[in-house]
Amino acid sequence: MKKLVIYGGTSLISVELIKIYLKENYEFIVFSRNKENFISRIKNLNLDLKKFELYEVDLLNLEENLKIISEIKKNIQGVFWIAGETGDALSEYKDLNLAKKSIEINFLHPALIICKLISKLDINQDTFIAAVTSVAGLRGRKKNFFYGSAKSGMISFLSGLRQKFYGQISILTIIPGYMSTEKFHLNTPNFLVTNPEKSARIIYNAIKQKKEIIYINFFWRVIMFFISLIPEKIFKRLSF
């Protein structure tokens, strides 16, 4: 039986991906912060709980995560990393423990856990790792510089991983932009926002096509291209 690991099980994108891969007869090993929340979502969709092996974990507890993974049998086909936490740059600047937490949740622990998961992969032509990063990782901004730095590290980590496992594992870097989730409340133009169902379909197709880096929303590719062209002498004066 083919199995997928999903980190960030309560994410709406995770649920949509599960719906897609269930049609291909996959089973799932799901890690989430709230096991009951995930079970509730699955029951509401009338999905078979027997298809899921569930773990409630805190990403800050690296030792517990690695211990659980070490006990998983080596028959995993793919890994989805969808976990993360935006945080607040001002609070993190004032309290370095919060800054440390942001870096651990968004880069350090994901990188180490993914490395551990690789040892459990059943490597063949369809094996993949797909990880959600952020446009925040493409250029540092005062509004989220700890989070952005962590996501930048994650993007670089995936690039290095892609080179290390070239020809063995397909590594997909996902840059989502704004997502219409339960927690999304920004007053943002609709064309910059993508819903979870469409996002999951785009991710699924990208994996099948063995792409390396995708923007869920094309407009963000254009926006970040032009932002990358702004000289640092000018960029540092901007406030967006």
Q: In brief, what are we looking at here?
A:
Helices cover 45% and strands 17% of the residues. It has 240 residues and is α/β, with parallel strands linked by helices. Strand 1, helix 1 (12-22) and strand 2 form a beta-alpha-beta unit.
Topology:
Layout: E1 3-7, H1 12-22, E2 27-32, H2 35-44, E3 52-56, H3 62-70, E4 76-81, H4 89-94, H5 96-118, E5 128-132, H6 145-164, E6 170-175, E7 178-179, E8 193-194, H7 196-208, E9 213-215, H8 218-229, H9 232-235
Parallel strand pairs: 1-2, 1-4, 2-3, 4-5, 5-6, 6-9, 7-8
Helix pairs in contact: 1-7, 3-5, 5-6
3D architecture notes:
The chain has 240 residues and is of the alpha/beta class. The chain is 45% helix and 17% strand. It contains nine helices and nine strands. It has helices spanning 12-22, 35-44, 62-70, 89-94, 96-118, 145-164, 196-208, 218-229, 232-235; strands spanning 3-7, 27-32, 52-56, 76-81, 128-132, 170-175, 178-179, 193-194, 213-215. It has a seven-stranded parallel β-sheet with strand order 3-2-1-4-5-6-9, with helices on both faces. Strands 7-8 form a two-stranded parallel ribbon. Helix 1 (12-22) links the parallel strand 1 and strand 2. The termini are far apart. The model has no long low-confidence stretch (mean pLDDT 90).
